[in-house]
Amino acid sequence: MIKLTTVKKAVITSAIALALTACGDNSTTNSAKSATNKSTDNVTNPATEVTSVEQATGIEGSELAHYLTRDIQDEVFYFVLPDRFNNGNTENDNGSKTIAISQGGFDKTKKGHYHGGDVQGLTDKIPYLKEMGITSIWLTPILRNRSMQGDITGYHGYWVLDFTEIDPHLGSNADLKHFIDTAHANNIKVFFDIITNHTADVIRYKECHGDGEIVFSDGKQMCDYKSLAQVASGDKYTPFVPADSDNIKVPAWLNDPKYYHNQGDSTFSGENSVYGDFFGLDDINTDDQAVVDGMVDIFSDIISQFKPDGFRIDTVKHVNIEFWQQFAPALVKHANEQGLPNFFMFGEVFDGNPDVLSKFTTTGKMQSVLDFGFAFAIKDVLVDQKGTNQLANLFAQDHKYNDHDSNANQLLNFVGNHDLGRLAWMLSKSEHNYSEDEKLARLALAHSMMFFLRGVPVVYYGSEQGFVGDGGNHDSRQDMMPSLVPSYNDDVLVGTDKTTADDNFDKNHPLYQSLAEFAEIYQANKALRYGEQKVIYSSDEAGIFAITRTLASGEQQLVVFNVSNDMQQANLSFSSEIDSAIYDSGNTLTSNENDQLMVAMSPLSVAIYQVK
Q: Which residues are catalytic?
Protein backbone atom coordinates (compact mmCIF):
# COMPACT_ATOMS: atom_id res chain seq x y z
CA MET A 1 0.00 0.00 0.00
CA ILE A 2 1.11 3.55 -0.71
CA LYS A 3 0.82 5.74 2.31
CA LEU A 4 -0.76 9.04 1.29
CA THR A 5 0.90 11.95 3.00
CA THR A 6 -1.56 14.78 2.60
CA VAL A 7 0.22 17.99 1.72
CA LYS A 8 -2.92 19.91 0.89
CA LYS A 9 -6.31 18.44 1.58
CA ALA A 10 -9.27 19.94 -0.20
CA VAL A 11 -11.52 21.89 2.14
CA ILE A 12 -14.51 19.99 0.86
CA THR A 13 -16.12 16.65 1.37
CA SER A 14 -16.72 14.35 -1.54
CA ALA A 15 -19.26 15.84 -3.92
CA ILE A 16 -20.09 12.40 -5.17
CA ALA A 17 -20.68 11.17 -1.62
CA LEU A 18 -22.89 14.20 -1.11
CA ALA A 19 -24.84 13.29 -4.22
CA LEU A 20 -25.26 9.69 -3.11
CA THR A 21 -26.56 10.62 0.33
CA ALA A 22 -28.56 13.77 -0.33
CA CYS A 23 -31.66 12.18 -1.77
CA GLY A 24 -31.86 9.66 1.01
CA ASP A 25 -31.61 12.34 3.68
CA ASN A 26 -34.79 14.36 3.99
CA SER A 27 -33.03 16.93 6.12
CA THR A 28 -31.16 18.12 3.05
CA THR A 29 -34.24 18.89 1.03
CA ASN A 30 -36.18 20.18 3.99
CA SER A 31 -33.45 22.63 4.89
CA ALA A 32 -33.23 23.56 1.24
CA LYS A 33 -36.90 24.45 1.15
CA SER A 34 -36.56 26.69 4.18
CA ALA A 35 -33.38 28.41 3.00
CA THR A 36 -33.70 32.00 1.82
CA ASN A 37 -31.02 33.35 -0.49
CA LYS A 38 -31.50 37.07 -0.90
CA SER A 39 -30.28 38.44 -4.20
CA THR A 40 -28.40 41.31 -2.63
CA ASP A 41 -26.13 39.20 -0.42
CA ASN A 42 -22.41 39.71 -1.03
CA VAL A 43 -22.82 41.55 -4.34
CA THR A 44 -20.16 44.06 -5.36
CA ASN A 45 -21.58 47.21 -6.93
CA PRO A 46 -20.02 48.62 -10.12
CA ALA A 47 -18.60 51.56 -8.21
CA THR A 48 -16.87 49.29 -5.71
CA GLU A 49 -13.37 48.08 -6.49
CA VAL A 50 -12.72 44.35 -6.28
CA THR A 51 -10.08 44.06 -3.58
CA SER A 52 -9.71 40.31 -3.08
CA VAL A 53 -10.20 37.01 -4.83
CA GLU A 54 -12.67 35.89 -2.16
CA GLN A 55 -14.74 39.03 -2.76
CA ALA A 56 -14.63 38.51 -6.50
CA THR A 57 -15.38 34.80 -6.66
CA GLY A 58 -16.44 33.43 -3.31
CA ILE A 59 -13.64 30.87 -3.71
CA GLU A 60 -11.25 30.86 -0.78
CA GLY A 61 -7.59 30.47 -1.53
CA SER A 62 -7.87 30.61 -5.31
CA GLU A 63 -5.57 32.67 -7.46
CA LEU A 64 -8.17 33.88 -9.92
CA ALA A 65 -6.76 36.73 -11.99
CA HIS A 66 -8.55 39.97 -12.81
CA TYR A 67 -11.11 39.44 -15.57
CA LEU A 68 -9.21 41.59 -18.09
CA THR A 69 -6.04 39.52 -17.75
CA ARG A 70 -7.62 36.10 -17.29
CA ASP A 71 -7.18 33.37 -19.89
CA ILE A 72 -10.12 31.34 -21.19
CA GLN A 73 -8.77 28.23 -19.43
CA ASP A 74 -9.38 29.90 -16.07
CA GLU A 75 -13.12 30.28 -16.67
CA VAL A 76 -16.15 28.45 -15.32
CA PHE A 77 -19.10 29.31 -17.58
CA TYR A 78 -22.79 29.58 -16.78
CA PHE A 79 -24.98 29.42 -19.90
CA VAL A 80 -28.37 31.05 -19.36
CA LEU A 81 -31.50 32.09 -21.23
CA PRO A 82 -32.27 35.48 -19.61
CA ASP A 83 -36.02 35.17 -20.26
CA ARG A 84 -36.17 31.99 -18.16
CA PHE A 85 -33.90 32.99 -15.28
CA ASN A 86 -35.22 35.78 -13.08
CA ASN A 87 -37.68 38.66 -13.52
CA GLY A 88 -36.10 41.80 -12.12
CA ASN A 89 -38.47 44.31 -13.75
CA THR A 90 -42.07 43.43 -14.58
CA GLU A 91 -42.49 46.69 -16.50
CA ASN A 92 -40.74 45.21 -19.54
CA ASP A 93 -42.56 41.86 -19.61
CA ASN A 94 -44.50 42.71 -22.78
CA GLY A 95 -41.58 44.14 -24.70
CA SER A 96 -41.53 47.38 -26.65
CA LYS A 97 -44.12 50.05 -25.95
CA THR A 98 -43.52 51.75 -29.31
CA ILE A 99 -42.38 49.14 -31.87
CA ALA A 100 -45.19 46.71 -32.65
CA ILE A 101 -43.04 43.96 -34.15
CA SER A 102 -41.03 43.70 -30.91
CA GLN A 103 -44.09 43.82 -28.66
CA GLY A 104 -46.17 41.10 -27.04
CA GLY A 105 -45.71 37.37 -26.66
CA PHE A 106 -45.72 37.35 -22.85
CA ASP A 107 -47.52 34.29 -21.47
CA LYS A 108 -45.97 32.41 -18.55
CA THR A 109 -48.24 29.40 -19.13
CA LYS A 110 -46.80 28.59 -22.59
CA LYS A 111 -43.32 27.14 -23.01
CA GLY A 112 -42.82 28.88 -26.37
CA HIS A 113 -43.64 32.39 -25.09
CA TYR A 114 -41.86 35.07 -23.09
CA HIS A 115 -41.79 34.48 -19.32
CA GLY A 116 -40.45 37.79 -18.04
CA GLY A 117 -36.82 37.14 -17.18
CA ASP A 118 -34.50 40.06 -17.92
CA VAL A 119 -31.00 41.47 -17.41
CA GLN A 120 -32.03 43.17 -14.17
CA GLY A 121 -32.99 39.73 -12.90
CA LEU A 122 -29.54 38.48 -13.85
CA THR A 123 -27.90 41.41 -12.10
CA ASP A 124 -29.85 40.62 -8.94
CA LYS A 125 -28.60 37.01 -8.95
CA ILE A 126 -24.88 37.64 -9.44
CA PRO A 127 -24.22 36.61 -5.79
CA TYR A 128 -25.92 33.26 -6.45
CA LEU A 129 -23.63 32.64 -9.42
CA LYS A 130 -20.50 33.97 -7.75
CA GLU A 131 -20.90 31.65 -4.76
CA MET A 132 -21.16 28.70 -7.14
CA GLY A 133 -17.75 29.61 -8.54
CA ILE A 134 -19.00 30.98 -11.85
CA THR A 135 -16.49 33.31 -13.52
CA SER A 136 -18.17 33.85 -16.92
CA ILE A 137 -21.84 34.31 -17.81
CA TRP A 138 -22.88 33.43 -21.36
CA LEU A 139 -26.23 34.90 -22.39
CA THR A 140 -28.38 33.69 -25.26
CA PRO A 141 -28.84 36.52 -27.83
CA ILE A 142 -30.02 39.73 -26.19
CA LEU A 143 -30.53 41.96 -29.27
CA ARG A 144 -33.99 43.14 -30.35
CA ASN A 145 -36.03 40.32 -31.86
CA ARG A 146 -39.21 39.87 -33.80
CA SER A 147 -41.53 39.01 -30.92
CA MET A 148 -44.05 36.78 -32.67
CA GLN A 149 -43.93 34.53 -35.73
CA GLY A 150 -47.04 32.46 -36.06
CA ASP A 151 -47.93 31.01 -32.66
CA ILE A 152 -44.42 31.09 -31.17
CA THR A 153 -42.13 33.85 -29.97
CA GLY A 154 -38.52 34.98 -30.04
CA TYR A 155 -37.99 34.59 -26.28
CA HIS A 156 -34.77 32.67 -27.05
CA GLY A 157 -33.23 35.63 -28.88
CA TYR A 158 -32.32 34.00 -32.20
CA TRP A 159 -34.67 36.09 -34.42
CA VAL A 160 -32.74 39.35 -34.49
CA LEU A 161 -34.14 42.45 -36.20
CA ASP A 162 -32.04 45.21 -34.66
CA PHE A 163 -28.33 44.67 -34.06
CA THR A 164 -27.91 47.95 -32.17
CA GLU A 165 -30.15 47.59 -29.12
CA ILE A 166 -31.18 45.07 -26.52
CA ASP A 167 -34.54 43.36 -26.84
CA PRO A 168 -37.08 45.41 -24.87
CA HIS A 169 -38.40 42.27 -23.17
CA LEU A 170 -35.00 42.04 -21.47
CA GLY A 171 -34.54 45.70 -20.60
CA SER A 172 -32.68 48.65 -22.08
CA ASN A 173 -29.14 49.24 -23.29
CA ALA A 174 -28.54 51.02 -19.99
CA ASP A 175 -29.76 47.93 -18.08
CA LEU A 176 -27.37 45.75 -20.08
CA LYS A 177 -24.43 48.05 -19.38
CA HIS A 178 -25.30 48.03 -15.67
CA PHE A 179 -25.36 44.23 -15.67
CA ILE A 180 -21.97 44.04 -17.38
CA ASP A 181 -20.49 46.67 -15.06
CA THR A 182 -21.79 44.78 -12.01
CA ALA A 183 -20.44 41.47 -13.30
CA HIS A 184 -17.05 43.04 -13.99
CA ALA A 185 -16.99 44.64 -10.55
CA ASN A 186 -17.39 41.11 -9.20
CA ASN A 187 -14.59 39.80 -11.46
CA ILE A 188 -17.06 37.92 -13.66
CA LYS A 189 -16.90 38.03 -17.45
CA VAL A 190 -19.89 38.39 -19.78
CA PHE A 191 -20.17 36.64 -23.14
CA PHE A 192 -22.79 37.51 -25.77
CA ASP A 193 -24.37 34.93 -28.07
CA ILE A 194 -24.29 36.37 -31.60
CA ILE A 195 -25.68 35.38 -35.00
CA THR A 196 -24.30 36.13 -38.45
CA ASN A 197 -26.00 33.32 -40.37
CA HIS A 198 -29.52 34.73 -40.40
CA THR A 199 -31.93 37.38 -39.21
CA ALA A 200 -35.60 37.17 -38.27
CA ASP A 201 -37.90 35.91 -41.03
CA VAL A 202 -39.05 38.91 -43.05
CA ILE A 203 -38.30 38.18 -46.72
CA ARG A 204 -40.94 36.34 -48.75
CA TYR A 205 -40.73 34.51 -52.09
CA LYS A 206 -43.50 35.16 -54.62
CA GLU A 207 -43.30 31.62 -55.98
CA CYS A 208 -44.32 30.01 -52.69
CA HIS A 209 -45.56 32.78 -50.38
CA GLY A 210 -47.90 34.48 -52.82
CA ASP A 211 -48.92 37.82 -51.36
CA GLY A 212 -46.68 37.35 -48.33
CA GLU A 213 -49.46 36.70 -45.84
CA ILE A 214 -48.21 33.19 -45.06
CA VAL A 215 -45.75 33.40 -42.19
CA PHE A 216 -43.07 31.27 -40.62
CA SER A 217 -44.31 28.18 -38.81
CA ASP A 218 -42.22 26.43 -36.18
CA GLY A 219 -40.09 23.86 -37.95
CA LYS A 220 -42.32 23.73 -41.06
CA GLN A 221 -40.58 24.00 -44.42
CA MET A 222 -42.54 26.20 -46.80
CA CYS A 223 -40.25 26.79 -49.77
CA ASP A 224 -38.24 23.98 -51.36
CA TYR A 225 -34.53 24.66 -51.65
CA LYS A 226 -33.20 25.91 -54.99
CA SER A 227 -29.67 24.64 -55.59
CA LEU A 228 -26.78 26.77 -56.80
CA ALA A 229 -27.08 25.04 -60.17
CA GLN A 230 -30.80 25.85 -60.36
CA VAL A 231 -30.18 29.48 -59.48
CA ALA A 232 -27.41 29.72 -62.09
CA SER A 233 -29.81 28.37 -64.73
CA GLY A 234 -32.43 30.98 -63.86
CA ASP A 235 -34.65 28.73 -61.74
CA LYS A 236 -34.79 30.90 -58.64
CA TYR A 237 -37.13 32.61 -56.23
CA THR A 238 -38.27 36.21 -56.48
CA PRO A 239 -37.72 37.73 -53.04
CA PHE A 240 -39.70 40.64 -51.68
CA VAL A 241 -40.36 42.37 -48.37
CA PRO A 242 -44.05 42.77 -47.40
CA ALA A 243 -45.15 46.39 -47.18
CA ASP A 244 -45.74 46.21 -43.43
CA SER A 245 -42.19 44.96 -42.87
CA ASP A 246 -40.28 47.50 -44.92
CA ASN A 247 -37.20 48.94 -43.17
CA ILE A 248 -37.72 47.08 -39.89
CA LYS A 249 -34.16 45.73 -39.67
CA VAL A 250 -31.25 47.72 -38.26
CA PRO A 251 -28.77 48.63 -39.69
CA ALA A 252 -30.64 49.64 -42.82
CA TRP A 253 -28.61 47.59 -45.30
CA LEU A 254 -30.07 44.41 -43.82
CA ASN A 255 -33.47 45.31 -45.32
CA ASP A 256 -32.26 44.76 -48.91
CA PRO A 257 -32.98 41.20 -50.18
CA LYS A 258 -29.86 41.34 -52.35
CA TYR A 259 -27.78 40.62 -49.23
CA TYR A 260 -29.47 37.23 -48.68
CA HIS A 261 -29.22 33.86 -50.41
CA ASN A 262 -32.99 33.60 -51.09
CA GLN A 263 -32.77 29.92 -52.07
CA GLY A 264 -35.50 28.43 -49.90
CA ASP A 265 -35.48 26.20 -46.85
CA SER A 266 -32.49 24.20 -45.71
CA THR A 267 -32.71 20.46 -45.15
CA PHE A 268 -29.34 20.66 -43.34
CA SER A 269 -27.49 18.47 -45.82
CA GLY A 270 -25.09 19.19 -48.64
CA GLU A 271 -24.83 22.72 -49.96
CA ASN A 272 -28.19 23.81 -48.56
CA SER A 273 -26.74 23.50 -45.07
CA VAL A 274 -24.88 26.71 -45.92
CA TYR A 275 -27.12 28.39 -48.50
CA GLY A 276 -30.60 27.43 -47.31
CA ASP A 277 -32.90 29.29 -44.92
CA PHE A 278 -32.43 27.99 -41.36
CA PHE A 279 -36.00 26.95 -40.38
CA GLY A 280 -37.31 29.67 -42.70
CA LEU A 281 -35.20 32.50 -41.27
CA ASP A 282 -33.59 34.97 -43.70
CA ASP A 283 -30.21 33.46 -44.65
CA ILE A 284 -27.58 36.18 -44.97
CA ASN A 285 -25.27 36.00 -48.01
CA THR A 286 -21.98 35.85 -46.15
CA ASP A 287 -20.14 35.20 -49.45
CA ASP A 288 -20.64 38.88 -50.30
CA GLN A 289 -17.69 41.04 -49.20
CA ALA A 290 -20.07 43.90 -48.42
CA VAL A 291 -21.84 41.59 -45.96
CA VAL A 292 -18.56 40.52 -44.38
CA ASP A 293 -17.60 44.16 -43.88
CA GLY A 294 -21.08 45.00 -42.59
CA MET A 295 -21.04 42.19 -40.04
CA VAL A 296 -17.57 43.15 -38.83
CA ASP A 297 -18.86 46.71 -38.37
CA ILE A 298 -21.99 45.58 -36.51
CA PHE A 299 -20.17 43.49 -33.94
CA SER A 300 -17.23 45.87 -33.65
CA ASP A 301 -19.76 48.52 -32.63
CA ILE A 302 -21.24 46.13 -30.04
CA ILE A 303 -17.77 45.52 -28.61
CA SER A 304 -17.08 49.26 -28.45
CA GLN A 305 -20.43 50.07 -26.83
CA PHE A 306 -20.87 47.25 -24.29
CA LYS A 307 -17.35 45.85 -23.73
CA PRO A 308 -18.33 42.16 -23.53
CA ASP A 309 -15.50 39.73 -22.86
CA GLY A 310 -16.24 37.50 -25.80
CA PHE A 311 -18.79 35.99 -28.16
CA ARG A 312 -20.36 32.59 -28.59
CA ILE A 313 -21.26 32.40 -32.28
CA ASP A 314 -24.41 30.60 -33.38
CA THR A 315 -24.84 28.24 -36.38
CA VAL A 316 -21.18 28.42 -37.40
CA LYS A 317 -21.21 25.44 -39.76
CA HIS A 318 -24.09 26.98 -41.72
CA VAL A 319 -21.84 29.86 -42.83
CA ASN A 320 -19.12 29.56 -45.49
CA ILE A 321 -15.75 29.10 -43.81
CA GLU A 322 -14.18 31.97 -45.77
CA PHE A 323 -16.40 34.35 -43.80
CA TRP A 324 -14.92 33.18 -40.50
CA GLN A 325 -11.39 33.58 -41.84
CA GLN A 326 -12.01 37.33 -42.06
CA PHE A 327 -14.59 37.88 -39.33
CA ALA A 328 -12.92 36.15 -36.38
CA PRO A 329 -9.46 37.80 -36.56
CA ALA A 330 -11.01 41.22 -37.30
CA LEU A 331 -13.15 41.18 -34.16
CA VAL A 332 -10.36 39.93 -31.91
CA LYS A 333 -8.14 42.71 -33.25
CA HIS A 334 -10.83 45.33 -32.65
CA ALA A 335 -11.50 44.07 -29.12
CA ASN A 336 -7.80 44.20 -28.30
CA GLU A 337 -7.73 47.81 -29.50
CA GLN A 338 -10.68 48.52 -27.19
CA GLY A 339 -8.76 47.38 -24.12
CA LEU A 340 -9.95 43.76 -24.07
CA PRO A 341 -6.67 41.82 -24.39
CA ASN A 342 -8.25 38.40 -23.74
CA PHE A 343 -11.40 38.78 -25.83
CA PHE A 344 -12.40 35.24 -26.82
CA MET A 345 -14.80 33.74 -29.34
CA PHE A 346 -16.10 30.19 -29.60
CA GLY A 347 -18.48 28.76 -32.15
CA GLU A 348 -21.44 26.41 -32.17
CA VAL A 349 -20.65 23.67 -34.68
CA PHE A 350 -23.43 21.17 -34.11
CA ASP A 351 -21.39 18.05 -34.83
CA GLY A 352 -19.60 15.53 -32.64
CA ASN A 353 -16.85 14.71 -35.14
CA PRO A 354 -13.48 16.32 -34.24
CA ASP A 355 -12.62 16.44 -37.96
CA VAL A 356 -15.57 18.78 -38.50
CA LEU A 357 -15.17 20.72 -35.26
CA SER A 358 -11.43 21.32 -35.62
CA LYS A 359 -11.79 22.64 -39.17
CA PHE A 360 -13.30 25.80 -37.73
CA THR A 361 -10.54 26.38 -35.16
CA THR A 362 -7.78 25.81 -37.73
CA THR A 363 -8.88 26.63 -41.28
CA GLY A 364 -11.72 28.82 -39.99
CA LYS A 365 -9.44 30.81 -37.65
CA MET A 366 -11.83 30.64 -34.70
CA GLN A 367 -10.30 30.37 -31.24
CA SER A 368 -12.53 27.53 -30.07
CA VAL A 369 -15.80 25.66 -30.45
CA LEU A 370 -18.31 23.99 -28.18
CA ASP A 371 -17.28 20.35 -27.86
CA PHE A 372 -20.34 18.40 -28.94
CA GLY A 373 -18.14 15.32 -29.13
CA PHE A 374 -17.56 15.59 -25.38
CA ALA A 375 -21.29 15.93 -24.66
CA PHE A 376 -22.09 12.88 -26.79
CA ALA A 377 -19.31 10.81 -25.17
CA ILE A 378 -20.54 11.69 -21.66
CA LYS A 379 -24.02 10.50 -22.63
CA ASP A 380 -22.56 7.29 -24.06
CA VAL A 381 -20.66 6.53 -20.86
CA LEU A 382 -22.90 7.81 -18.06
CA VAL A 383 -26.37 7.35 -19.56
CA ASP A 384 -25.98 4.43 -21.96
CA GLN A 385 -23.23 2.66 -19.94
CA LYS A 386 -20.92 2.20 -22.90
CA GLY A 387 -17.22 1.61 -22.34
CA THR A 388 -14.91 4.36 -21.18
CA ASN A 389 -13.01 3.91 -24.44
CA GLN A 390 -15.65 6.23 -25.89
CA LEU A 391 -13.84 9.03 -24.06
CA ALA A 392 -10.39 7.70 -24.97
CA ASN A 393 -11.31 7.60 -28.66
CA LEU A 394 -12.50 11.21 -28.51
CA PHE A 395 -9.40 12.48 -26.72
CA ALA A 396 -7.10 10.61 -29.13
CA GLN A 397 -8.12 13.20 -31.72
CA ASP A 398 -7.34 16.28 -29.62
CA HIS A 399 -4.21 17.06 -31.65
CA LYS A 400 -6.45 18.10 -34.54
CA TYR A 401 -7.27 21.35 -32.73
CA ASN A 402 -3.67 22.51 -32.37
CA ASP A 403 -2.60 25.71 -34.08
CA HIS A 404 -1.14 29.08 -33.07
CA ASP A 405 -4.17 30.16 -31.00
CA SER A 406 -6.12 26.94 -30.33
CA ASN A 407 -5.79 23.64 -28.52
CA ALA A 408 -8.08 21.09 -26.93
CA ASN A 409 -7.73 22.65 -23.47
CA GLN A 410 -9.67 25.63 -24.83
CA LEU A 411 -12.65 23.60 -26.03
CA LEU A 412 -15.92 24.33 -24.22
CA ASN A 413 -17.13 21.23 -22.34
CA PHE A 414 -20.83 20.74 -21.66
CA VAL A 415 -23.16 17.86 -20.82
CA GLY A 416 -26.52 19.36 -21.87
CA ASN A 417 -27.91 22.51 -23.43
CA HIS A 418 -30.95 24.35 -24.79
CA ASP A 419 -31.03 22.31 -28.02
CA LEU A 420 -29.96 18.79 -27.06
CA GLY A 421 -31.80 18.73 -23.76
CA ARG A 422 -30.57 18.13 -20.23
CA LEU A 423 -28.50 15.17 -19.09
CA ALA A 424 -31.03 14.58 -16.29
CA TRP A 425 -33.72 14.09 -18.94
CA MET A 426 -31.51 11.61 -20.79
CA LEU A 427 -30.99 9.70 -17.55
CA SER A 428 -34.73 9.77 -16.80
CA LYS A 429 -35.68 8.22 -20.13
CA SER A 430 -32.85 5.68 -20.14
CA GLU A 431 -33.60 1.99 -20.48
CA HIS A 432 -31.51 1.45 -17.34
CA ASN A 433 -34.29 2.86 -15.11
CA TYR A 434 -31.99 4.79 -12.81
CA SER A 435 -33.20 5.52 -9.29
CA GLU A 436 -33.38 9.11 -8.09
CA ASP A 437 -30.26 8.58 -5.97
CA GLU A 438 -28.39 7.18 -8.93
CA LYS A 439 -29.46 10.02 -11.20
CA LEU A 440 -28.06 12.46 -8.67
CA ALA A 441 -24.77 10.56 -8.42
CA ARG A 442 -24.42 10.27 -12.18
CA LEU A 443 -25.16 13.97 -12.68
CA ALA A 444 -22.53 14.91 -10.11
CA LEU A 445 -20.00 12.57 -11.72
CA ALA A 446 -20.77 13.89 -15.22
CA HIS A 447 -20.13 17.44 -14.06
CA SER A 448 -16.91 16.39 -12.33
CA MET A 449 -15.74 15.03 -15.70
CA MET A 450 -16.77 18.29 -17.33
CA PHE A 451 -14.53 20.15 -14.87
CA PHE A 452 -11.54 17.82 -14.53
CA LEU A 453 -11.08 16.49 -18.06
CA ARG A 454 -9.45 18.79 -20.60
CA GLY A 455 -11.54 21.77 -21.69
CA VAL A 456 -13.43 24.66 -20.14
CA PRO A 457 -16.56 23.76 -18.10
CA VAL A 458 -19.96 25.17 -19.11
CA VAL A 459 -22.82 24.78 -16.62
CA TYR A 460 -26.24 24.92 -18.29
CA TYR A 461 -28.56 26.98 -16.10
CA GLY A 462 -30.83 24.90 -13.87
CA SER A 463 -28.46 21.92 -13.87
CA GLU A 464 -27.38 22.94 -10.38
CA GLN A 465 -31.02 22.67 -9.27
CA GLY A 466 -31.67 19.21 -10.73
CA PHE A 467 -33.79 20.38 -13.68
CA VAL A 468 -34.95 17.55 -15.96
CA GLY A 469 -37.29 18.56 -18.80
CA ASP A 470 -39.07 16.52 -21.45
CA GLY A 471 -36.59 16.85 -24.33
CA GLY A 472 -34.64 19.50 -26.20
CA ASN A 473 -35.49 23.01 -27.36
CA HIS A 474 -38.53 24.49 -25.53
CA ASP A 475 -38.70 21.41 -23.28
CA SER A 476 -35.24 22.08 -21.85
CA ARG A 477 -35.71 25.79 -21.18
CA GLN A 478 -37.46 25.80 -17.83
CA ASP A 479 -37.90 28.76 -15.51
CA MET A 480 -35.64 29.24 -12.49
CA MET A 481 -38.21 31.70 -11.14
CA PRO A 482 -41.61 30.16 -10.29
CA SER A 483 -43.08 28.69 -13.49
CA LEU A 484 -46.67 28.44 -14.69
CA VAL A 485 -45.94 25.99 -17.53
CA PRO A 486 -47.75 22.69 -16.76
CA SER A 487 -45.29 20.52 -18.69
CA TYR A 488 -42.42 22.00 -16.69
CA ASN A 489 -44.11 21.78 -13.32
CA ASP A 490 -44.92 18.08 -13.58
CA ASP A 491 -41.20 17.18 -13.70
CA VAL A 492 -39.69 15.29 -10.78
CA LEU A 493 -36.52 17.30 -10.15
CA VAL A 494 -33.34 15.55 -9.09
CA GLY A 495 -32.00 16.07 -5.57
CA THR A 496 -34.95 18.06 -4.22
CA ASP A 497 -38.66 17.82 -3.51
CA LYS A 498 -39.26 21.17 -5.17
CA THR A 499 -40.81 21.58 -8.61
CA THR A 500 -40.31 24.30 -11.21
CA ALA A 501 -43.43 25.95 -9.77
CA ASP A 502 -41.13 27.00 -6.92
CA ASP A 503 -38.34 29.54 -6.86
CA ASN A 504 -35.20 27.51 -7.65
CA PHE A 505 -32.14 29.41 -6.45
CA ASP A 506 -31.31 27.00 -3.64
CA LYS A 507 -27.67 27.20 -2.56
CA ASN A 508 -28.21 24.08 -0.43
CA HIS A 509 -29.13 21.89 -3.39
CA PRO A 510 -26.60 19.03 -3.53
CA LEU A 511 -25.76 19.72 -7.17
CA TYR A 512 -25.22 23.43 -6.52
CA GLN A 513 -22.85 22.48 -3.73
CA SER A 514 -21.11 19.88 -5.90
CA LEU A 515 -20.53 22.39 -8.68
CA ALA A 516 -19.21 24.97 -6.22
CA GLU A 517 -16.79 22.35 -4.89
CA PHE A 518 -15.67 21.33 -8.36
CA ALA A 519 -15.08 24.98 -9.25
CA GLU A 520 -12.93 25.40 -6.15
CA ILE A 521 -10.78 22.41 -7.05
CA TYR A 522 -10.54 23.58 -10.66
CA GLN A 523 -9.31 27.04 -9.67
CA ALA A 524 -6.90 25.74 -7.04
CA ASN A 525 -5.10 23.34 -9.39
CA LYS A 526 -3.48 24.80 -12.47
CA ALA A 527 -2.79 21.37 -13.94
CA LEU A 528 -6.54 20.76 -14.24
CA ARG A 529 -6.84 23.88 -16.41
CA TYR A 530 -3.60 23.94 -18.39
CA GLY A 531 -2.07 20.49 -18.07
CA GLU A 532 -1.54 18.31 -21.10
CA GLN A 533 -3.94 15.39 -20.84
CA LYS A 534 -2.88 11.78 -21.37
CA VAL A 535 -5.27 8.84 -21.10
CA ILE A 536 -3.62 6.05 -19.11
CA TYR A 537 -6.58 3.71 -18.66
CA SER A 538 -9.86 2.99 -20.43
CA SER A 539 -11.77 -0.13 -21.39
CA ASP A 540 -14.67 -1.34 -23.48
CA GLU A 541 -16.69 -1.68 -20.28
CA ALA A 542 -18.35 0.96 -18.11
CA GLY A 543 -15.74 1.09 -15.39
CA ILE A 544 -12.58 3.04 -14.70
CA PHE A 545 -11.20 5.91 -16.75
CA ALA A 546 -7.88 7.49 -15.79
CA ILE A 547 -5.84 10.41 -17.09
CA THR A 548 -2.85 12.49 -16.12
CA ARG A 549 -2.67 16.29 -16.45
CA THR A 550 0.91 17.54 -16.77
CA LEU A 551 2.20 21.11 -16.84
CA ALA A 552 5.28 22.23 -18.77
CA SER A 553 7.02 22.59 -15.39
CA GLY A 554 6.60 18.86 -14.83
CA GLU A 555 3.90 19.18 -12.18
CA GLN A 556 1.47 16.33 -12.65
CA GLN A 557 -1.89 15.20 -11.31
CA LEU A 558 -3.62 11.87 -11.69
CA VAL A 559 -7.41 11.89 -12.14
CA VAL A 560 -9.40 8.65 -11.93
CA PHE A 561 -13.14 8.09 -12.45
CA ASN A 562 -15.35 5.08 -11.88
CA VAL A 563 -18.50 5.33 -14.02
CA SER A 564 -19.87 1.98 -12.84
CA ASN A 565 -22.46 1.17 -10.18
CA ASP A 566 -20.01 -1.34 -8.73
CA MET A 567 -16.65 -1.20 -6.99
CA GLN A 568 -13.97 -1.36 -9.68
CA GLN A 569 -10.26 -2.18 -9.76
CA ALA A 570 -7.73 -1.55 -12.52
CA ASN A 571 -3.99 -1.65 -13.07
CA LEU A 572 -2.80 1.68 -14.43
CA SER A 573 0.35 2.12 -16.51
CA PHE A 574 1.79 4.54 -14.03
CA SER A 575 5.17 4.29 -12.37
CA SER A 576 5.36 7.65 -10.56
CA GLU A 577 4.82 8.03 -6.83
CA ILE A 578 1.67 9.56 -5.42
CA ASP A 579 2.28 12.48 -3.09
CA SER A 580 -1.18 13.38 -1.76
CA ALA A 581 -4.89 13.16 -2.31
CA ILE A 582 -6.29 16.43 -3.60
CA TYR A 583 -9.79 15.01 -3.79
CA ASP A 584 -10.65 11.49 -2.70
CA SER A 585 -14.12 10.06 -2.24
CA GLY A 586 -13.09 6.93 -0.35
CA ASN A 587 -10.77 5.33 -2.89
CA THR A 588 -7.53 3.45 -2.23
CA LEU A 589 -4.34 3.10 -4.23
CA THR A 590 -1.83 0.26 -4.16
CA SER A 591 1.27 -0.39 -6.24
CA ASN A 592 2.58 -3.62 -7.70
CA GLU A 593 5.98 -4.80 -8.81
CA ASN A 594 5.65 -3.97 -12.49
CA ASP A 595 5.68 -0.18 -12.46
CA GLN A 596 1.92 -0.15 -12.40
CA LEU A 597 -0.60 1.31 -10.01
CA MET A 598 -3.62 -0.65 -8.89
CA VAL A 599 -6.59 1.55 -8.17
CA ALA A 600 -9.72 0.38 -6.36
CA MET A 601 -12.65 2.77 -6.60
CA SER A 602 -16.08 3.14 -5.09
CA PRO A 603 -19.11 3.21 -7.42
CA LEU A 604 -19.65 6.43 -9.38
CA SER A 605 -16.66 8.19 -7.87
CA VAL A 606 -13.75 10.45 -8.76
CA ALA A 607 -10.33 10.96 -7.21
CA ILE A 608 -7.52 13.43 -7.93
CA TYR A 609 -3.97 12.85 -6.74
CA GLN A 610 -0.87 15.01 -6.72
CA VAL A 611 2.10 13.18 -8.24
CA LYS A 612 5.62 13.55 -6.81
A: 314, 348
